[in-house]
Amino acid sequence: MGEALLNKEAVFEGLAQNVAIQALRAAHPEAIANAKFDRGELTLVVAPGSIRPACRTLQAAGYNFLEDVTCVDWYPAEPRFQVTYHVLSHRLKERVRLHVMVQSIDPSVDSITPVWPSANFYEREVWDLFGVRFHGHPGLRRIMLPEEWEGHPLRKDYPVEGYR
Amino acid sequence: MPDYSDRHDMPEIPGFVETSTLVVPRPEEGSKDHTMVLNMGPQHPSTHGVLRVVLEIDGETVVKLVADIGYLHTGIEKTCEAKFYQQVVPLTDRIDYLCPMTNNLAYCLAIEKLLQLEIPERAQWMRVLLNELTRLNSHLVWLGTHAMDIGALTVFLYTFREREEILRIFEHLSGQRMMTSYFRIGGLALDPPLDFFDSVQALIKILPEKIDEYENLLTGNPIFINRLKNVGYLSAEDAIALGVTGPPLRASGVDWDLRRDMPYSSYDKFRFQVPVSNDGDVWARYIVRLQEMRESVKICQQALDGMPEGPIKADAPHVVLPDREKMKTQMEALIYHFKIVTEGFQVPTGEVYQAVESPRGEMGYYAVSDGTAKPYRVHMRNPSFATLQALETMCVGRLIADVVAVIGSIDIVLGEIDR
């Protein structure tokens, strides 16, 4: 597993041969805001505006499969929402995790459905349970809960037992 | 945030989303695109649970398909955040009721990765053995119900006969038939009973000929072939773009199996083939799954032959509950037991994603820890949820009756889709 590398400079130095880091640094030098390598897993924090081009670059670099899109609510910290993407390369047998940090006021981020159509359901789930909107999504409506539901249950300020 | 303090004067919530909000029919009589909307489910025997599908059809041809899910949503991810780490294990069973052991494994591996725990060999091999038994169990249910959807009712009785044997073994092992919760963070719950290995050996000895028996009933059956061949085609590009994993992905010609390509829990010590087909239709998925069952039997045999001796729990007293015997004689063990049960154990800060190959595809657990005894966030990446997105691609342009065959072929479990 190796040592944990906890900041951008250490990751860039320690994982200089990593295909994802090389491709992203070459195409979008400003896109990686931070990076972490912990427990054998690489995490790249991507600037909010750059997620779609970053995903396109990764896809071209051989990271062909989007596994998952989800979100973590860091309430009451700001930026509050951490939208998390897991991207896999079948060829390299490697996985990279992308983070996008989103502010709590009008939380929204660019949809990556134009890059991977499979993001459709995942992004609808994040919208449903966290209330983070995705620009350019083909049909952003609730997926788990009824259309009339109020609130987003996986937010930390939503009680576990709901509002009754 | 809106104010929720006075919910009692809210308007009554209608129980059903109107069909017209999902699909708009084009009903003009005599026009070229004269279509109607058909609602299928949520209570429909071939949707394997409570999947609702809204179909726009032109005659018998599907023009558009919208899957409506969420009828089984119980908020398991939210519940996880309110439980201690060890209390989440029983919840993971309930996500996918056909392969509880796979879910247990994915969750335990994720938390063990957070804790950086070393798991003893015997526990890892037992986990492999049980996972393959679970895969056989799940595939047997799939085969029986899928054939029943197509109209071959007999196979169902045959597959459930063998499944019953597997469930009996599980009951003998863990005390439960379906919701086994047998894995623990750091190893297994109990030592397997003395005759466990003999009963597994007896079962996997007869299984290959039983699989031959199913094949005799189905593989040469002309009605079955006609209903399955060239139905629900999915290309490799579409499968990858739509997030399809597991047998449907391999049936579309992508040679990818997490057990072989990203091995976990000592799967790298086992020798097995990964069946792949380039046909991409329902028939290919049937063949791939049947081959997988035969490979699972081989893995079980290897696990039985080479099962190492030794402990079944990691040497980590602050995480793993002590043996009952030790608790009666050692004060220290009693204190550890009391502490784990009452206040849990703290997990170092961090985040991990652990994926395993479930019978349906990639089952991934994303766990975030903030250093306390409860998970800050647990997210499940479910294979059926992603594969459901490919349903429209596979069904559009085909007949309504084929929709039933396609839903059966992606082996959908609504419990894990809705969570």
Q: Segments of chain B where pLDDT lies below 50 for 5+ residues?
A: 10-17
Total helix count of chain B? 18
- The overall pLDDT of chain A, averaged over residues, is 87
Structural class of chain B: mainly alpha
- Mean pLDDT across every amino acid position of chain B: 86
Shape verdict of chain A:
globular
Question: Largest sheet of chain A, if any?
Answer: 5 strands, mixed
Q: How large is the share of residues in beta strands of chain B?
A: 5-15%
How many discrete structural domains of chain B?
2
Span from first to last CA of chain A?
A: 47 Å
Query: Largest interface: which pair?
Result: A-B, 42 and 47 residues
* Residues in helices of chain B, as a percent range: 40-55%
Distance between the termini of chain B: 25 Å
* The top level CATH class name of chain A: Alpha Beta
**How would you write the strand order of the largest sheet of chain A?**
1-2-5-4-3
| Helix/strand order of chain B | HEEEHHHHHEEHHHHHHHHEEEHHHH
Topology:
The complex is a heterodimer of chains A (164) and B (419).
Chain A: H1 8-14, H2 19-27, E1 32-38, E2 41-46, H3 51-60, E3 65-73, E4 81-89, E5 94-102, E6 108-110, H4 119-130, E7 133-135
Parallel strand pairs in A: 2-5, 6-7
Antiparallel strand pairs in A: 1-2, 3-4, 4-5
Chain B: H1 19-22, E1 36-40, E2 52-58, E3 61-68, H2 76-80, H3 89-93, H4 100-115, H5 121-150, H6 154-174, E4 183-184, E5 187-188, H7 196-218, H8 222-228, H9 236-241, H10 247-251, H11 258-261, H12 282-305, H13 324-329, H14 331-343, E6 350-358, E7 361-369, E8 377-381, H15 383-387, H16 391-395, H17 400-409, H18 414-418
Antiparallel strand pairs in B: 1-2, 2-3, 4-5, 6-7, 7-8
Helix pairs in contact in B: 4-5, 5-6, 5-12, 5-17, 6-7, 7-12
